[in-house]
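Hey, I was hoping to borrow your eyes for a little while. I'm sending you its amino acid sequence along with the backbone structure tokens. Take your time with it, there's no hurry, and the full record follows here.
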Amino acid sequence: MEYVITFKNTNFAIKAEQILLADRLRVTVMPLPSQIKAGCGICLRINPEQIGSALKILKSNHIGETVIYLKRVDNNRTSFQEIVDSAILM
């Protein structure tokens, strides 16, 4: 299980990566999965232990208009569930 954070545009995605890496969080830039129809074409992958910290850091740095997805793999099938209320992760 891991989380995927999507952004309104590429500039926000790149800035978010820089900010989170500077705070020593482990994030990975990846192409936007085809199952997700929103976002700029790239997203950040982050593990569950760090999602709360990541969201707080992004908010404090005014990186807005993000959408969070929970990535699950069951029986070799990957699915993404949008997290409607990201406040529950913080």
Summary: The beta strands are 2-6, 27-31, 42-46, 67-74, 77-83.
